[in-house]
């Protein structure tokens, strides 16, 4: 067997070994957030009873539930919960910047985003939704096999602790290709790169009737900027570098720029009908997943 084949086999085995831990973390996280089906709580075609409502002008006689109506002086319609499966498209940033962690005790932004995305996918797929990735690599499908496909795709970027690929960009660009009209979408990133690319992606999605959420994942060091004195700042990909003797003098300007970027993201999401949330890797993953799960329900 050639050295190239041996290297490929070694990498494949390493990736396979990482798959069960990712799934185990995601399964556990999903289980803490929701037990049972994800209720859509919208009237429509389905089998599950939702509620009774009074008859309104325009309702036909066959819509009336005569057994329930016989118990009172009013007439009632039996509403069923909407059960048409939705397509949810995901983009999880795998650029170099996402591999940053300012504390060995905390996960990198990439690890946290992967676990959150997988847990969310598990919740959605097991409630009957179709989940896939933006672009053309993995179209939305249902079923347990799709959960495994998603996990494999999320683990394609450089493993933690290994050198990042020379060609990997410092910051991610949201992928908006192959968006299904009127689907829902989830973008997870630090959103620290080119803002025009984010604007273009969300605008393109909104033009196709796609609604969704952007979750900004940051490390606590990136939010606090605790640096003082002499410091060298270098991007994870090594393409950007800044040397300063007074890092504390940069703190105010940095925090202002960070707040400005967050405000831009909020305004963009509001303008395109999306929802915006932010999450620190020092915070509970459960709270971020719960927000994302509820936010998707509101964006439907």
From TrEMBL:
It comes from the Bacteria. InterPro entries: DUF58. It holds the Pfam family DUF58. Residues 51-263 form the DUF58 domain. This is DUF58 domain-containing protein.
């Amino acid at each position: 067997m050639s050295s190239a084949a041996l290297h490929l086999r070694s990498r494949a085995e390493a990736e396979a070994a990482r798959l069960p831990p990712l799934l185990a973390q995601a399964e556990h996280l999903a289980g803490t957030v929701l037990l049972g089906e994800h209720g859509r709580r919208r009237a429509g075609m389905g089998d599950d009873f939702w509620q009774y409502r009074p008859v309104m002008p325009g309702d036909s006689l066959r819509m009336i539930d005569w057994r329930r109506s016989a118990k009172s002086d009013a007439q009632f319609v039996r509403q069923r919960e909407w059960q048409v499966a939705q397509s949810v498209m995901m983009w999880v940033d795998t650029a170099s910047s996402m591999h940053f962690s300012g504390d060995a005790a905390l996960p990198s932004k990439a690890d946290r985003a992967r676990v959150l995305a997988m847990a969310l996918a598990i919740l959605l797929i097991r409630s009957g939704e179709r989940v896939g990735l933006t672009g053309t690599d993995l179209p939305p499908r249902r079923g347990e096999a799709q959960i495994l496909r998603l996990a494999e795709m999320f683990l394609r970027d450089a493993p933690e602790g290994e050198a990042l690929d020379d060609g990997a960009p410092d910051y991610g660009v949201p992928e908006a290709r192959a968006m299904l009209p009127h689907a829902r979408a989830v973008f997870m990133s630090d959103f620290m790169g080119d803002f025009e690319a984010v604007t273009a992606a969300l605008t393109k999605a909104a033009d196709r009737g796609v609604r969704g959420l952007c979750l900004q994942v940051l490390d606590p060091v990136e939010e606090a900027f605790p640096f003082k004195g002499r410091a060298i700042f270098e991007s994870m990909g090594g393409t950007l570098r800044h040397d300063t003797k007074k890092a504390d003098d940069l703190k105010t300007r940095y925090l202002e720029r960070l707040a400005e970027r967050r405000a831009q993201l909020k305004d963009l999401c509001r303008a395109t009908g999306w929802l915006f949330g932010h999450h620190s890797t020092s915070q509970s993953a459960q709270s971020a997943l719960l927000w994302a799960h509820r936010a998707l329900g509101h964006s439907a």
